[in-house]
Amino acid sequence: MKNTVATLAAMKRNGEKISQLTCYDYSTAKLIDAAGINMILVGDSLGMTMQGYKDTLPVTVDEMIVYGRSVVRGCKETFVVVDMPFMSYQISIEQAMQNAGRIMKETGASAVKLEGGKEVCPQIRAITAAGIPVVAHIGMTPQSVNAFGGFTVQGKGEANARRVLEDALAVQEAGAFAVTLECVPPKLSALITKKLDIITIGIGASPECDAQVLVWQDMLGISDFKPKFAKHFAEVGETMREAFRAYDGEVKSGVFPASEHTFVKSDCTEEFLASLDVEY
Ligand SMILES: Nc1nc(=O)c2c([nH]1)NC[C@@H]1CN(c3ccc(C(=O)N[C@@H](CCC(=O)O)C(=O)O)cc3)CN21
Ligand SMILES: CC(C)C(=O)C(=O)O
Ligand SMILES: [Mg+2]
């Protein structure tokens, strides 16, 4: 079944959990789509996982579009959300709409996501008014890493908890159809999930959230990144390292390629090859 804003909202109403993974390429998108994952996030975390930056700030709209359209081509049923990168929506409503429009037109995604609470509600209102579904993202918003002084848990203490709840209510009121709660403590994110009609998507949050998201390299043990929430569902990184070592060994020992990996049937006879006498 194709996932849409309507089917996802119905899942929340029926108390069914929603799965989301990040993804940045076509081959992985096909695997995620075939597994029945409801949503993909083409996250600006690609600046770290795919490009090796220390944070997400250098990522551009053009880059999000290249990765985003690759993922969309791999999805038949999964709902694709693309992150708006740092400084592509903060400057003005006009800038936010222009970039959200470009992302939708040039990737074929079904929604955009942007970080922030009350301060980005004018942008959320304008983008949704243009018919573009918006996912908000509150709590630990990685594009503010320099303001936070690190990727640290937000919503600690009563004043911060109140602010996170107010942000959640504000983005819902502004028209977001879902909100990501990143590193928001469990009781607070459970309360937000109860209070909101829109979908809450947890990462390092509560199992009570309507949806959960993880970075795909983290859940497969491929990244060197191990925050508390990054459960490994397989050790694919170790499997890859072993396969690379095996390949290296077989190339160097001459075991690979074997005759079944070569085009034996298309070959010329040895007599003919011996008769070749070509000069430059
Ligand atoms: N590979 C990857 N996975 C992610 O989940 C992810 C990214 N990259 N890049 C963008 C953001 C950054 N994120 C982060 C980064 C670090 C922590 C972290 O180290 N958290 C500490 C808690 C710190 C505290 O106690 O305040 C932890 O121990 O989990 C969490 C989320 C989540 N996102
Ligand atoms: C970690 C998730 C929520 C994200 O925003 C990203 O992958 O960029
Ligand atoms: Mg992001």
From TrEMBL:
Keywords for the protein's UniProt record, in alphabetical order: Cytoplasm, Magnesium, Metal-binding, Pantothenate biosynthesis, Transferase
InterPro entries registered for this protein in UniProt: Pantoate_hydroxy_MeTrfase (IPR003700), Pyrv/PenolPyrv_kinase-like_dom (IPR015813), Pyrv_kinase-like_dom_sf (IPR040442)
Binding site for Mg(2+): D44, D83, E115
Cofactor: Mg(2+)
Catalytic reactions of this protein: (6R)-5,10-methylene-5,6,7,8-tetrahydrofolate + 3-methyl-2-oxobutanoate + H2O = 2-dehydropantoate + (6S)-5,6,7,8-tetrahydrofolate
Subcellular location: Cytoplasm
GO MF annotation: an example: 3-methyl-2-oxobutanoate hydroxymethyltransferase activity
EC code(s) of this entry: 2.1.2.11
Residues at the catalytic site: E182 (proton acceptor)
Electron transport is among the record's keywords: no
Pathway it works in: Cofactor biosynthesis; (R)-pantothenate biosynthesis; (R)-pantoate from 3-methyl-2-oxobutanoate: step 1/2
SUPFAM superfamilies registered for this protein in UniProt: Phosphoenolpyruvate/pyruvate domain
Domain of life the protein comes from: Bacteria
Residue positions binding 3-methyl-2-oxobutanoate: D44, S45, D83, K113
Binding note for cofactor: Binds 1 Mg(2+) ion per subunit.
Family: Belongs to the PanB family.
Quaternary data: Homodecamer; pentamer of dimers.
Cited NCBIfam families: panB, PRK00311.1
Function: Catalyzes the reversible reaction in which hydroxymethyl group from 5,10-methylenetetrahydrofolate is transferred onto alpha-ketoisovalerate to form ketopantoate.
Protein name: 3-methyl-2-oxobutanoate hydroxymethyltransferase
Organism in which the protein naturally occurs: Agathobaculum hominis
